[in-house]
Amino acid sequence: MTSAAFDPASLKYDDKGLIPAIAQDAETHEVLMMAWMNAECVAKTLDTGKVTYWSRSRQAFWVKGETSGHLQTLIDLRYDCDQDCILVMVHQEGPACHTNRRSCFYTAVREGETVELMEPMV
Amino acid sequence: MTSAAFDPASLKYDDKGLIPAIAQDAETHEVLMMAWMNAECVAKTLDTGKVTYWSRSRQAFWVKGETSGHLQTLIDLRYDCDQDCILVMVHQEGPACHTNRRSCFYTAVREGETVELMEPMV
User: Measured between CB atoms, does A122 come within 8 Å of chain B?
Assistant: First the structure.
């Protein structure tokens, strides 16, 4: 096991300065959502423990759950071998999806048909 | 539960025609890797049951494990509420990572330091 000081700038961002971040429930291991971070989001997430994405539509920081109350609390932040993707293990309050489903990945493709796997939580 | 015919072209691809695809172990639920697909990769993955990405460095189809033997067999293909991210539930033969680790996400950031969580499998 080796360790070294971490610098958010050491990750690889795309031409818009963004890196994909996968959120996984730290307890159930369900994949909840995928969104984007810039280097400042990575620093904020580590500093505050509140998972903070970059909203591409609003071009603004997006503290997950800040308005909905469905906060994502950081349990562990990991990144991949190529340093171009982040995995956040989180505690998710309520639904992660804006459709009120626990996970955004509620649609499957089975035998050529789309199948809805989850109902909204509320 | 609703169902409808699935068309790979109905997903949202970026300006390079690509969509991020997260691979998760269908049994342990470990997140193994993230790579990219185009619409043809999605169709091939569903048709063959072998998870097929687009190699951005080689600009070619990449049937995961075709050369290494570390095949990814599709168990279930899902996509998110925005139709701009795929989650493949897979059976992974051996390591998913080119470093011979089971998962590409073997580095964590804890108290400002990077920590290696996994050793190579072989």
Answer: no
Q: Is residue B44 classed as helix, strand or coil in its secondary structure?
A: helix
pLDDT tens-place string over residues B33-75 = 999 999 999 999 999 999 999 999 999 999 999 999 999 999 9
Residues annotated within the binding site of A for Mg(2+) are 80, 82, 84
Decide if pLDDT at B118 tops 70.
yes
Question: Which CATH number covers residue A24?
Answer: 3.10.20.810
Number of domains into which chain B is organized:
1
Residue ranges of the annotated binding site of B for Zn(2+) are 81, 97, 104
What pLDDT shows up at residue A49? Answer: 98
- Asked if A114 has any chain B CB less than 8 Å from its own CB, the reply is yes
Could you tell me how far CA A6 lies from the centroid of its own chain?
Answer: 19
Full residue range of the structural domain in which residue B57 is found: 17-94
Host H or E run for residue A92 = strand A86-92
- Considering only CB atoms, which chain A residues are within 8 Å of B34? 20, 22, 80, 85
Of A4, A78, A117, the CB nearest to B108: A78
End-to-end CA distance of chain B: 44
Identify any residues that bridge with B78 across adjacent strands, giving them in sequence order: A108, B87
Which of B3, B80, B114 has the CB atom closest to A6's CB atom?
B114
